[in-house]
Amino acid sequence: MNDLLIFTHILKTGGTSFKRSVIDFNIPENRVYKYRGLKHFIFDDLSEARFVDGHCPYGIHIFTSRKCTYATILREPLSLAISYYYFIKQCDYPNYKHPKLEEVKQCSLVVFIKNNPNPQTWCIAGFPWNKIYSGTSQNLLSCAVKHLKERYKFVGILESIEAFENEVASFYGWSWKPIYEQSKRTFNRPKARDLNESDKTLLQKSLSLDIQLYNEAIRLIESGSQGRYTPPNSHTT
Fold it and tell me: What is the pTM (predicted TM-score) of this model?
């Protein structure tokens, strides 16, 4: 494995379980780069890194000369939105409070998602497109779909995470075993089926791009390929 495996870890999509199940068994900790933001990524030495760990969007490969491979997991958008909102709510501890805790305390799930729409599309469209287009722009979705089809070697969905883990491990000749990380589990949250129809409709409107992107991911997985996959390099966005 000479490439730098960049995992676009979207919040609440099972990324920590993937890392526990696959990465921890196969890549030494000193070869895992902890993403702390774009500024650090640009100036840090990545020569020995094999895996980028952290909530980084697509596009950071343009800031390194390393050959990069992208992987990601998506989640059914309504379920993700509920999990994310209630996860923030529970992150209210004496030694840690989520950066968005005060925002969540001041608004309902529906209002929070309206103010923070389509997080999966935002991540997969990535840099610089998520700085150019709004979170509800069809242009943002077009970028995300193109990247998912052509720039991601591995695409999975949380609902079938073991298939994704097996695909990544098999490609690199790695061993793995399913481990479901519980430390970041969201407790005491409703299910999508528990929402009233009015709230569900409003949420689906705010998540319309994510819904389309998620459906595209399912089509890619079912077709058995990521279309015209081209490894990204410093000249491709």
Answer: 0.92
